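Batch 3, record 17
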Amino acid sequence: MRAEKLTMMANQIAAFFKAQGEAAAPAAIADHLKKFWDPGMRADIIAHLDKGGDGLDPLTRAGVERLRAR
Amino acid sequence: MSLVREDDLGTPASTAEQLVRLTIDGHEVCVPAGTSIMRAAREAGIGVPKLCATDSVKAFGSCRLCLVEVEGRNGTPASCTTPVASGMRVKTQTPLLKDLRRGVMELYISDHPLDCLTCAANGDCELQDMAGAVGLRDVRYGYAGENHLVQQKDESNPYFTFDPAKCIVCSRCVRACEETQGTFALTIDGRGFASHVSAGMAEDFLDSECVSCGACVQACPTATLSEKSVIEIGVPEHSVVTTCAYCGVGCSFKAEMRGEELVRMVPFKDGKANHGHSCVKGRFAWGYATHKERVLEPMIRARIDEPWRKVSWDEALAYAASEFKRIQAKYGRLAVGGVTSSRCTNEETFLVQKLVRAAFGNNNVDTCARVCHSPTGYGLKTTFGTSAGTQDFDSVDHSDIIVVIGANPTDGHPVFASRMKKRLREGAKLIVIDPRRIDLVRTPHVEAAYHLPLKPGTNVAVLTALAHVIVTEGLVNDAFVRERCESDAFSGWADFVALPQNSPEAVEKVTGVPAASIRGAARLYATGGNGAIYYGLGVTEHSQGTTAVMAIANLAMATGNIGRPGVGVNPLRGQNNVQGACDMGSFPHELSGYRHISEEPARAMFEALWRVPLDHEPGLRIPNMLDAAIEGRFKGIYIQGEDILQSDPNTKHVAAAFAAMECVVVHDLFLTETANYAHVFLPGSTFLEKNGTFTNAERRIQLVRKVMSPRNGYEDWEITQKLAQAMGFAMSYSHPREIMDEIARLTPTFAGVSFEKLSALGSIQWPCNNQAPVGTPVMHIDGFVRGKGRFMITEYVATEEKVGPRFPLLLTTGRILSQYNIGIQTRRTANVVWHAQDVLEIHPHDAEERGIKDGDLVKLASREGETSLRAIVTDRVAPGVVYTTFHHPGTQTNVVTTEFSDWATNCPEYKVTAVQVSPSNGPSDWQQDYAAMAARSRRVAEPVAGE
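Prediction for the assembled complex:
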């Protein structure tokens, strides 16, 4: 799926979970992506991260990294 | 079969707890204090003649037919207006009363047409019945005196006539309009003999404020107000109680029939959602079922630029199945999916998701709730533990403060709006949070205490500012929070909302709402007694839709407005079965009962019963399916009862997605806009032609009963079953009750639900199980479903959709009373007389700046597309905001809306689109191109000679 769109969607998710603090937010972001994004979308955002993750906010990046590590 | 006739007890029930004993015609009777003699008698099986009384409106005492004698009292009081008293001894039949009643009837009949044999109400006329009841044999006054017999009929309304010659001026219609509907469109004009019913300011019904709810027709005891369908067809001979297929109120109706012909839909008095009331859609707009454009034969085509070819059911289903199999073989298991509809029954919806999960072998199933209330599911599950509203509709009778956020109940949920207005007339206070001045803000005998006309997209800022006031001014219900909510989450939330940046003063610039209004509204909600919040798509259809739902839940928890009648958080569901479609496991990540597909114990139950392994990963949501199609990864879709092309945002994007698919199967009543891109068309059945259940906005499960044979040959659940069979997956239900039995076996909240119990109880509000065998009207009474309520931090994040020099206005969309959703049903009824086209509301200042006058054709353009439509210049919208509906494909309003969506659920942000409006000379290029494409796509090949 278009990296630009997924990046925007992931950044939106991160903006919500930001309130949970920098320690807890990455896991919450990863949980959300795991529960609500289909495997193809998750693979695409991880692939985008692997290519440098252009446009991913720092917290989003941390969340996707956490997702990739699972 | 016979007509279902509810007993009319004459006057409304008394709610007093104290009981009173009296004697009526020698029978001892015991009734609540405040009951009328008429009702007490009727409850004891003693009918007192009456004309002006009916139990849906307060007693009036004008017809003087219900007179009785009371021992020890002078005169002959009207039994409708005289309350019972302890020890009272009443006689309803005496020689004196007979003479009086006969005299009254003589006067009525002396000024009434004697055309009973040719009257449409012959056999269904209370005046006729009363003439018999009082033994009227002649009229001493003759018929030559002054009368009203030559007065002209008002036939302006498309659904009913008003014949003043037959009017007895009992005021039942006037009182129904006031008390039941709350519109106050009717009055008795003139005095004495000149008294007459008048619509508006002596206007035709069609030109008056009348909203055609039918309450007056229902209340009329004569043929004065008659359904045109009864005049044309004749009085019905049997009826079947069923559930309306329009909005989420879920009104019960009696479908009154002659054979298999529907004569009229009459609101069912025992319906627990509507209590005998209706709106113009449910009451009258059912003609689409027999509309000439309905498609009744299956059709297929290899490419969408080919004409349709009519085929047998077997051929159509075999073709669809072979295409899905081919696509999966070529592109992989995940390349197909399905969409369920909130317009279909629970059983149909359950089968579609079963087809996708079990026969397609993936979880690419979604529902149109995706684009309306999916944030409600996420938000309320997170905070309360379950994805549903907390109350029943009757709860509003106990509310002191009613908060309406992003909803327009008088248009979207009119029958419940009437209940709400009644409570407001009784003194409850109203807070409206909406960019538009919706009708509720100021309507007869109702005026909002606060209207917060916020800028579209700033719900979260306003809701958090309300919380700021509640926390910082010490208005939190500490006892409730301490006992019922997670303390750490509350503390973190309270600290957050108390921050200066969340104060009303700080957010005023962003929201456009005066800080004083937010402070006043917050204080009123927190301290005014029972506070109930009702919200709609103006909350959910935003990039922060889920956050706003959580913010609403926070407010209710902070003030202790949860867990009893009169309070709560109540999503007003747009379509009839939004709640049910969500309950039935239509979302790609959830099985029925909101259990995540990854939960092993839940999934194992389904796998064991269905005898097939299920994918444990979530599937694609509708917007994701469309994106994947454009990328070439999603190639086939089965869509039951949903017109995605017209209803989903950014029409060009949706069209491109469908054009990229190789097999689009549309299962619907008409050739929808989506069907223009379809390869298989499976004709659907209407709600009149099938059995099943709908679940309304108050979690009330109600039976839908078949009143006529499906004109297309099959009920919709049968068609899905046949498609599953064609795919090689065994389904062998013989009736939807068996599907409900399976739902009950697999879904804890439905464990106690069955067709038999629904038939016995009339309806059931889930959860219905061993703990709540007859259902649950109010949720979270002793504790939240999740245990402790969870406060969530709701930081305002501005939408990515920004106004600027090119697109300086904000468009927000919604709907109107007479039309429903994308209009596929209501556009094929006479409801088009009220709304024949989508129009754009624009503020006078914005119109003047652009040289736009009322009625002008204007171009509405956004970054995504443009369309042309007529303008209405009105200050209902604030400067900088424009509003329109999405009922008509000719406008295709969603060609301008964007793909921005809610962060949690991908619910589209329909409510915020940056646009420009300018004068126009005609339809946009898109409109012209689309109209041509649609015309080409709807061609049906003529059968070849000899075939």
